[in-house]
Structure formats: structure tokens, C-alpha cells
Amino acid sequence: MATIAVDPREDYLLRLGDDALVLGQRVSEWCGHGPVLEVDISLANLALDLIGQATLLLDEAGDGDQLAFHRDVLDFRNCLLVEQPNGDFAQTIARHLLYTTWQHMLLQRLQQSSDKFLSEFAHKAVKEVAYHRDLASEWTIRLGDGTEESARRMAEGLAWNWRLIPELFEVDDAMQAAIDSGIAPDPREFEEEYRAAIASVLAEARLEPPADQRPILGGRRGHHSEHLGHLLAVMQFLPRTYPDAKW
Amino acid sequence: MSSDWPLWEVFVRSKGGLAHRHVGSVHAPDAELALAHARDTYTRRLEGVSLWVVPSAEIVASDPDQAGELFEPAESKIYRHPTFYDIPDEVKHI
Amino acid sequence: MYTTELQKTGKIENLEDPQLLDAFEARVAADEFIEPKDWMPEAYRRTLTRQISQHAHSEIVGMLPEGNWITRAPSLRRKAILLAKVQDEAGHGLYLYCAAETLGTSREQMVEALHSGKAKYSTIFNYPTLTWADIGAIGWLVDGAAIMNQVPLQRTSYGPYARAMVRICKEESFHQRQGYEIMIAMANGTPEQKRMAQDALDRWWWPSLMMFGPPDENSPNTAQSMRWRIKRDTNDELRQKFVDVTVPQAEFLGLTVPDPDLAWNEEKGGYDFGEIDWEEFYAVVRGEGPVAKERMKARREAWDDGAWVREAADAHEAKRKQRKAA
């Protein structure tokens, strides 16, 4: 099915919606397997917020379930960061810190979007995401400045995801069109602020920021990592196998 | 390998104007995460507008064996209750 | 649910002070609540610790069969509902462990008893979830059976347990309904969906009846537990009640209950039903259920893999306190 979005608004909705959907799906994999009951519950709350955001965004872009369950890899618009595997708890926290710190800064600005839906969406989601960012920061600090083992794992989790940060600030043609039409903020405007925020959390966690790595790009145009295909295979299995069924 | 975090008691103010009420407990390594765990566990259905957490070990409780000496003497102080006093019905606003 | 008695403690010698014991029995008989610091007989403390921790273990192990379908839920709405439900079960396990902790056993000790195979949990969670209809069947039948058991426990004699049950019952009110809603969609869906729905009922019906525990004649501690108000109805009474309300629900779905002996008995005003395979039940209690090994492996892995996380947070707090003191 070809759903390559040409409309900059639809493309932008898919970018944000797919980010939330894919990250929500990933975090939900933890349910029942968290390091302690309380953390299991916290992680499920994060996933529930994200699935809620995805539902709003994808329903605005079209038929949410159709978009979530009947597109293939090339049509997904999420960034590479959110599709990364959970790894251990430190790697999950690293991914969540790097993504939600960005997402929070974006949503703060998106509240001023000229698009009524996006502005209202941002207004609601920014509160959820502030909590995500805070929780991820708290855990980064505890793991970074915890035991030797936790510091090593936290550093490894950051190192794994670090190469995927530049994609968050990439402005390609479709993104530029969304910025020009006034619906989307320009992420480059807060890149410096983002780097400083992450550096400040890492400093409190007594962790060295990983060395900058060669940026890996492509997710926003459907060129993903190998991980996304497997995530979709699991997530889409039922609606794909029984396309006529209602659930 | 095994270890669990200390226990904290959780108190929720369900809406402005009401007192915090004990709702249960959570395990947490420190005060900030105790608040986060309390929030994630006990306010998922709009149950609250404010939270307190207190280390369970810090709660000082009265001894049930002393319940008699502590609380029963109040039973005989019926003059502390408004119904103890006879005021004629025709007297209003008192 | 999870409240069924699956383990017997050895006879506890009655060395209690008879005066204290009489006073305790009188309080319980008068429907007073017993609170953590109150005097209680050792047998009451042990029986309750076992019952509440078993209940907690069941909630936590019970996350796994349904958790198996969170990543494969067929719509965004179903995904959010299932995740919220399984998360509720984590919360219920948490409330119950905390209630049991007030009796003097730490959560860590209870978790270790589960992982070593010493503690039991509800037999129902040792069966696999094969299709999406199983998620419907679990909500409908397993949560339905659980509600029967849990509602009376809101008035149980031990205060912290009763309060946990009040919260749990309130939160669980949507669990059974969401399951039945899935069954309605499946039973009225495509031929493949109908097949899944009937197959799920076929597989979950008998294990659901087993959830109420052994028949009354093989449940020797029932009398004491009922006197102590930590059990409010017998296993067979609850089982009968469950069958009576559930059979019409199956009929509404157009599904067949897999029991050739099932028949309405006008005289008793309830259904007669076939003999439960108690051999199967006791085998599953012993840990020989179809996916018992998988369930325990998943729980042990989560706990063991989480050890470094728990330690890290403790270590961080210790460092912070030290720095503050310096």
C-alpha cells in the first residue's frame, strides 16, 4: 500500500505519530519483566502515554489502525532512535532520555503551532512528556552514579543510541515545508539547548558524554534499521493475517 | 542476587480542601523515586492532586495494648459533645 | 483470585495464651477488623501471610499470559486496554505484597519463596495463551472467577487485606467487561474468529472452574478460615455461583460450554455440571502445568536481571547521603 505522504502536514503527523507508536510498542515489551514491580508499573505508564499520543496523531493523519497495522517499513516515518531494541534497563533509559528530552522541547514550541490540532495536541502531551523526561533523567543519574556495573551499562546504553541524535535535528525537504507553513517548529533552534540539557543530566550522573559518532539518518524517509521490520512483524501480525476481521 | 528497596507509606489528597489520606505503600530507594512510584501506582485514575510519602520506618504508632488507657477515658467525657446540653427548642441559633 | 488455598501449613501447636485467643476470636466473630500491631494467634498470621502472598504471586505471574499479547494486540484501542489491565495486575500484586508485609514477612522473602517453588500461585496461569481469543476468555472467565472470590474478601477480618481488596475490586471492574467485549467481537466475527473463540472457551473452561480450589470435602482448613473471616464462602459455593452466571453468558455468545453433563436443575435452581479432573488440578498445583516452567523462568529472570538496577539505586542513595553528611 502506498501511503507516501506528500502533504507536509500529513507527513509531519506521521513523523510524530510513528515516533510515539514505535516507542510505545518498545516500552510495552517491558510489561511483566521490569526490574521491580514499581518500575514495571512506571514503564507501563510511559507506554500508555505514548500509545495514547500515537492514537491521536495517527487518527488525525487518517485511519489510525489502518496506518499502524497496514503499512510496511518504507512508509513508517519514525526516527531511528525510537525503534532501537530495549536492551537492558540502562539502554531503555538512555533511549528514553535522549528521545523525550527532544520531544519535550519540541512540544513546548509546538503549542504555538499555527495548526489548531497540533497546538492542542502539544498542550496535552507536553505535560506527559515532562514526566517522561524527568523520570528518565532521575534514572540516568541513579544508574550513572550508582555501582560500577550500572555506570558501565548506562555508558553503553548511551553509546549505542548516541549516533541517532543528529537525525532528531535533521531538516529535510518535507520538514522544511512543514516549518515554512508554520505548523512545525524548526528543531535546529533548540539543538544547542538540547545538547546542554543532556550534558547537564550526564554531569549529575557523573558520566562522560560519548564521543560524537557519524550520524545515521534515513528513518524519516522510510530507510530504517533492521529492527523496525521485526517490531512491525510482531505488532501487525493479527490484522495482516485476518484482514477482514474486526477486533 | 536479591535485594528490595525500603518501604514508604503513601498519602493522597484526593481534591483541594481535603486532608491527605493513607492509601497504601510502595518500595523505593529514595524520596524522589518514592514519589514517582506513588504517583505511578496510586494516581492512575485521577485519584489525587497531591502526594505525601513517608518512610514506613519513621511512622510512630500507638501501642494497641494501650488502647484502653489512651482512648477509653474519652468515653466518659460526654460533656464535650453538644448533645449533652438541654436547650429549650424555642431558643434558636445556638 | 487467587485466594484458593493451595498449600497447607503443618499443624501449629497451640501454645497461645487462651485468654488472648478467646478475646481475639470474639473480636473476629463480632466482625471487628484486626490491624497489624494487634495481637493475633500465630496460626492466623501464618495462614494470612500464605493466603495474601499467594494472591500477590498470582497477580504477578498472571501478568505473563496476557502480557504475551500486548505487543500483538490487534488495534490501538485494544493495545492500550490490555496494557492498562496488565499494569493493574502489577499494581494489585504490589498492594497485596504490602498488605502481607504488615504481617512481618518482607516482599523479598515472599518473592524468594515463589522463585524457589516453595510458594504457590493460582493454577490458571500455567496454561498458555495461544490466540487473541484467549485474552477475551481470560478477562471473561478468569477475571469473572476472581471477582466472585474477591468481592467477599473486601470484608475480610484483616484490615490491610480488606483495604487492598476494596481498591482491587474497584479497579478490576473493567477487566471482565473488556474480556467479554473481545469475546462478543470474536463470536460474531469471521469463521476464523469464531473458531478461536470456541477453542478458547474449550481450553479455559475447566481450568477456570479449578480456580475455586479443591472440593469442600478436601479443603480441611475451610472451617477455620471461615471462622476467621479470611474466607467468606466455600470453594464449592463459589464454583456453583460462577457456573450459574457464566453459562447464560456463553449462550449469549453462541458458544458451547465443553461439558456434556451440564444441565439446568430446576430443583436446586442452578446448573449441574460434570466432574472436574482433580488429577490435573493437583498436578498443576505441584508445578506440572503446561507452561509452569516458562512462567517461573520469566519471573526469575526479571528479578535476577533487575538486581543490578535495585542495587544501583541503593548505592546512589547511600552516596548521596554520605555527600550530604560530609
CA-based gyration radius of chain C: 21 Å
Number of strands of chain B: 3
Tell me the overall shape of chain B. elongated
CATH topology label of the domain at 2-60 in chain B? Ubiquitin-like (UB roll)
The DSSP helix count of chain C reads 13
Low-confidence segments of chain C, ≥5 residues, pLDDT <50? none
Structural class of chain C: mainly alpha
Largest sheet of chain B: 3 strands, antiparallel
Q: What is the ordering of alpha helices and beta strands of chain C? A: HHHHHHHHHHEEHHH
Beta-strand residue fraction of chain C: under 5%
Describe this structure in words.
The complex is a heterotrimer of chains A (247), B (94) and C (326). By secondary structure, chain A is mainly α. Chain A has a single domain (8-235), classed as Ferritin (Up-down Bundle). Helix content of chain A is 64%, strand content 0%. Chain A has eleven helices and no strands. Chain A has helices at residues 8-28, 37-61, 64-69, 89-110, 116-144, 148-162, 165-168, 173-180, 191-204, 226-235, 237-241. In chain A, α1 (8-28) crosses α8 (173-180). Chain A is globular. In chain A, 53% of the residues are buried. Chain B has helices at residues 31-42, 67-71, and strands at 7-13, 21-27, 50-55. Chain B is built from two helices and three strands. Chain B has a domain at 2-60: Phenylacetic acid degradation B (Ubiquitin-like (UB roll)), CATH 3.10.20.520. Chain B has a three-stranded antiparallel β-sheet with strand order 2-1-3. By secondary structure, chain C is an all-alpha fold. Helices cover 65% and strands 2% of the residues of chain C. Chain C has 13 helices and two strands. A two-stranded antiparallel sheet of chain C has the order 1-2. In chain C, β1 and β2 form a beta hairpin. In chain C, α2 runs antiparallel to α4 and α4 (76-101) packs antiparallel against α7 (159-187). Chains in contact: A-B, A-C, B-C. Chains A and C meet through α1, α2, α3, α5 and α6 of A and α3, α4, α7, α12 and α13 of C.
Question: What's the layout of helices and strands?
Answer:
The complex is a heterotrimer of chains A (about 250), B (about 90) and C (about 325).
Chain A: H1 8-28, H2 37-61, H3 64-69, H4 89-110, H5 116-144, H6 148-162, H7 165-168, H8 173-180, H9 191-204, H10 226-235, H11 237-241
Chain B: E1 7-13, E2 21-27, H1 31-42, E3 50-55, H2 67-71
Chain C: H1 18-29, H2 42-61, H3 63-67, H4 76-101, H5 107-115, H6 132-153, H7 159-187, H8 191-210, H9 222-227, H10 235-253, E1 263-265, E2 270-272, H11 278-288, H12 292-305, H13 307-325
Helix pairs in contact in C: 2-4, 4-7, 6-7, 6-8, 6-10, 7-8
